[in-house]
């Protein structure tokens, strides 16, 4: 089994003869903005960052190789394929001949964590420009060799072509680069303000067309793809023991709970068992995995009593009581006067509650670490390779230039699970025992210790006029979360257990609809339990509130929900999307659902609509794709069970690099959002997180996945928008609105479990 060693790839490319590189001189990464996630570092690598490499290679089938490097990673979204399409298009090489290197810290540029649906929308831009620069340089080399004008040449499939009447010539890229006669050609990446000759969209042959995922064949044939399958010579196996406050990382007791470890309790076990402790970090290492598991179970550890966990049985009450700092986002017009004014016909005041949820990765997190006395290499499933490198340096104090993160795929997360934590576990154990160590968490540890998608509370007042116009909107969100510091940093005492407060509750906090007066605020607060970002971040719960409220206002105005939304939108792309989605779904105006009156077989039927554009990053942020849902459901009023019959999802992604990939992303968003909206909620007890396995935290099964129909707006002439999260954002509101159409009752708190439905219907 061959493992990619990026530090063995990057330096040889810089020194390799007959090579064309597009590089950027590295600079210190930007410090996180105040209130935003990230690990600040002053580290600047000594060598240029490579974006695109084309090299002569007589051993390659075509006589050349092409590689592209991006700092983001593929979390199952298919960006490895889409990024390859972008580069292959501009570089004029076959897609199958392009090698993509993603996220490896020793080989790829530092472009920050893979979050906020920004890989195609933002981080792909310099990659596209680098590929275009490389193509133009290859054309210039051919023009010089032939003595012709470069404008008379074109490239295709790794060949430069010249045609002038009967004079037709071709030069393969490899032959062109051999003409460098051992020289190296390093082009500086053009800065954003410098024009670069890009292919017009009308000439695209790869971008905008469906392409098979380049990562699937290796997975189907069992080649090394996942970090769980990494094996290195001399590797041993580790397990960790977590303290008795599951899922809690804030308080004076953090890092000060360990009393004693009984080494003798595992001395009799086979496998050369070693016990490693530092602060509250406890781990065992053995020669074989089953031996490490046995040692984990046998090791006797004494802990000090810890304070009881916050009472999260009433999530809304706990969040409301949590100390907060109010941050005004929008203050337009006299909102209070509008609520009391003569022109106001209806005022609604509601509170919407979102539960704590898990990333719920099917496979527990895993990592392998190897320390050779100078350099630490970690094989990881992280979504934040460069940020992880900084955190490991804070933990181990080796210097970032001595730490390599080799990124492989892992179980899906769509946010910060335990993938980084287990890397630190493996690194501590490997350095302590002097051998490579593989660590895989238990299911209970993954469930309890992964940073949760936080609970969220949204308080809303809204008013409409006698003509149904939107008069005022008063919105306040409370979001107790941060970026969940690396667990080993806390357990070893490297950083104190005092949680910091981040400003992340403001994603899509401003409603998309045209209210005459608006007051929008975010109450920033520290976490109540270990929390971090989950797909949609705070935007999904915020949109749950926005689009449930607009639906209730439409009802109060006696208006059709689709027409009412369109009437109060100014964005023509939003209007076109909602209209197209409704038409595809066969939306019928004036035909409500059961509204609490059972039909055939005693079931209630309903249909709901919702719309959102995912606006993310530091407020006021910027928008990703537009999305709309129409969902049809049946409700059994006796059991409270919801059966989703059909979902139509429309999305305006702008230019789609790989429409098949976008469609797959929408399907994944829908399935996860259904699970989160209908089933998922973390349980807590006096110790902390009480959901330890799938029985205590059920997720959606295959038999409950409904037909999903996707409407993709034709916008190939527009810039690409992020597609990784947008389709999830309107989902909960669409389901809640369908529940109203079926039952005649409004639902203000997710998930909509059978118990919750029965409580509302019979409460």
Keywords:
alpha/beta; 763 residues; seven-stranded mixed beta sheet; single chain; 28 strands; five-stranded mixed beta sheet; 18 helices
Strand order in the sheet with the most strands:
11-12-9-19-16-17-18
Count of alpha/pi helices: 18
Q: Give the overall pLDDT as a whole number.
A: 94
Radius of gyration over C-alpha positions, nearest whole angstrom: 28 Å
List unreliable stretches of 5+ residues. Answer: none
Structural class: alpha/beta
Question: Describe it for me?
Answer:
This protein is an alpha/beta fold and 763 residues long. Helix content is 27%, strand content 25%. The protein has 18 helices and 28 strands. The protein has a 7-stranded mixed sheet with strand order 11-12-9-19-16-17-18. Strands 4-3-2-1-8 form a 5-stranded mixed sheet, with helices on both faces. Strands 14-23-22-21-15 form a 5-stranded mixed sheet. β26 (622-635) and β27 form a beta hairpin. α9 (385-396) crosses α10 (419-433) and α13 packs parallel to α17 (731-743). The longest helix is centred in the N-terminal third of the chain and has 28 residues, at 119-146.
Brief overview, please?
With 763 residues, the protein is α/β, with parallel strands linked by helices. It has a seven-stranded mixed beta sheet. A five-stranded mixed beta sheet has the order 4-3-2-1-8, with helices on both faces. The longest helix has 28 residues, at 119-146.
Q: Secondary-structure map with pairings?
A:
Blueprint: H1 7-15, E1 19-24, E2 49-56, E3 64-70, H2 79-91, E4 98-102, H3 119-146, E5 153-156, E6 159-164, E7 167-172, H4 173-178, E8 184-188, H5 216-221, E9 236-241, E10 258-262, E11 274-278, E12 281-286, H6 289-298, E13 300-303, H7 315-321, E14 325-332, H8 335-340, E15 344-354, E16 366-371, E17 376-380, H9 385-396, E18 403-407, H10 419-433, E19 437-440, H11 443-449, E20 452-453, E21 456-465, E22 470-480, H12 487-491, E23 517-525, E24 531-532, H13 539-557, H14 561-567, H15 572-585, E25 604-616, E26 622-635, E27 642-652, H16 659-678, E28 708-712, H17 731-743, H18 754-762
Parallel strand pairs: 1-8, 3-4, 9-19, 17-18, 20-24, 22-23, 27-28
Antiparallel strand pairs: 1-2, 2-3, 5-6, 6-7, 9-12, 10-13, 11-12, 14-23, 15-21, 16-17, 16-19, 21-22, 25-26, 26-27
Helix pairs in contact: 2-3, 9-10, 13-17
């Amino acid at each position: 089994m061959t493992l990619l060693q990026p530090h063995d790839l990057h330096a040889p490319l810089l020194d390799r003869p007959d090579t064309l590189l597009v590089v950027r001189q590295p600079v210190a990464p930007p410090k996180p903005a105040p209130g935003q996630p990230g690990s600040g570092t002053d580290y600047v690598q000594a060598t240029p960052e490579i974006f695109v490499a084309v090299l002569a290679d007589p051993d390659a089938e075509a006589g050349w190789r092409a590689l592209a490097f991006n700092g983001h990673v593929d979390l199952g979204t298919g960006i490895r394929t889409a990024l390859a399409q972008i580069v292959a298009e501009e570089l004029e090489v076959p897609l199958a001949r392009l090698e993509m290197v993603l996220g490896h810290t020793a080989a790829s540029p530092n472009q920050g964590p893979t979050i906020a649906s920004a890989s195609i929308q933002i981080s792909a831009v310099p990659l596209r420009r680098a590929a275009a620069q490389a193509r133009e340089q290859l054309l210039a080399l051919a023009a010089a060799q032939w003595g012709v004008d470069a404008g008379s040449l074109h490239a295709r499939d790794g060949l430069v072509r010249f045609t002038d009447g009967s004079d037709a010539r071709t030069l393969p890229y490899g032959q062109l680069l051999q003409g460098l006669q051992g020289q190296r050609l390093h082009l500086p990446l053009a800065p954003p303000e410098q024009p670069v000759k890009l292919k017009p969209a009308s000439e695209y042959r790869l971008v905008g067309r469906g392409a098979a995922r380049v990562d699937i064949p290796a997975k189907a044939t069992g080649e090394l793809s996942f970090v769980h399958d990494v094996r290195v010579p001399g590797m041993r196996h580790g397990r960790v023991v977590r303290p008795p406050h599951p899922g809690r990382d804030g308080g004076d007791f953090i890092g000060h709970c360990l009393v004693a470890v009984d080494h003798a309790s595992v001395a009799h076990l086979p496998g050369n068992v070693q016990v490693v402790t530092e602060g509250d970090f406890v781990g065992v290492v053995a020669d074989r995995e089953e031996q490490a598991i046995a040692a984990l179970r046998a090791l006797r550890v004494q802990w000090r009593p810890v304070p009881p966990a916050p009472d999260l049985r009433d999530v809304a009450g706990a969040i409301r009581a949590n100390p907060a700092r109010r941050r005004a986002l929008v203050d337009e017009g006299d909102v209070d006067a509008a609520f009391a004014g003569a022109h106001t016909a209806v005022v609604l005041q509601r509170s919407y509650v979102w539960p704590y949820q898990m990333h719920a990765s099917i496979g527990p997190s895993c990592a392998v670490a190897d320390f050779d006395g100078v350099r630490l290499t970690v094989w990881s499933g992280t979504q934040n390779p460069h940020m992880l490198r900084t955190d490991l340096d804070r933990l181990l104090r080796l210097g970032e230039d001595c730490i390599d993160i080799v990124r492989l795929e892992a179980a899906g997360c769509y946010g910060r699970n335990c993938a980084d934590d287990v890397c630190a576990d493996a690194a501590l154990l490997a350095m302590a025992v002097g051998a490579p160590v593989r660590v895989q968490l238990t299911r209970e540890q993954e469930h309890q210790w992964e940073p949760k998608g936080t609970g969220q509370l949204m308080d809303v007042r809204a008013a409409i006029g006698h003509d149904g116009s939107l008069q005022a909107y008063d919105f306040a969100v409370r979001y107790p979360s941060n970026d969940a510091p690396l667990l080993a940093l806390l357990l070893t005492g490297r950083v104190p257990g005092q949680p910091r407060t981040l400003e992340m509750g403001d994603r899509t906090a401003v409603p998309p609809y045209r209210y005459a007066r608006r007051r929008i605020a975010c109450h920033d607060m520290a976490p109540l339990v270990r929390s971090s970002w989950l797909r949609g971040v705070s935007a999904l719960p915020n949109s749950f509130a926005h689009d449930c409220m607009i639906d209730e206002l439409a009802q109060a105005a006696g208006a059709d929900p689709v027409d009412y939304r369109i009437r109060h939108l100014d964005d023509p792309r939003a209007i076109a999307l909602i209209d197209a989605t409704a038409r595809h779904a066969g939306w019928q105006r004036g035909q409500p659902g059961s509204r609490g009156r059972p039909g055939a077989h005693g079931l209630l039927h309903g249909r709901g609509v919702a719309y959102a554009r995912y606006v993310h990053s530091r407020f006021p942020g910027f928008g990703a794709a537009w999305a709309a849902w129409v969902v049809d459901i049946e409700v059994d009023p006796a059991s409270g069970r919801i059966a989703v019959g059909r979902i139509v999802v429309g999305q305006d992604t702008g230019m789609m690099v790989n429409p098949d990939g976008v469609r797959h992303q929408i399907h994944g968003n829908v399935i996860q959002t259904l699970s989160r909206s209908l089933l998922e909620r973390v349980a807590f007890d006096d110790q902390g997180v009480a959901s330890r396995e799938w029985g205590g935290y059920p997720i959606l099964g295959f038999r409950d996945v409904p037909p999903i129909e996707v409407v993709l707006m034709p916008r190939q002439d527009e810039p690409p928008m992020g597609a990784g999260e947008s389709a999830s954002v309107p989902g909960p509101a669409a389901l809640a609105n369908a529940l109203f159409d079926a039952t005649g009752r409004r639902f203000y708190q997710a998930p909509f479990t059978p118990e919750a439905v029965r409580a509302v219907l019979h409460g």
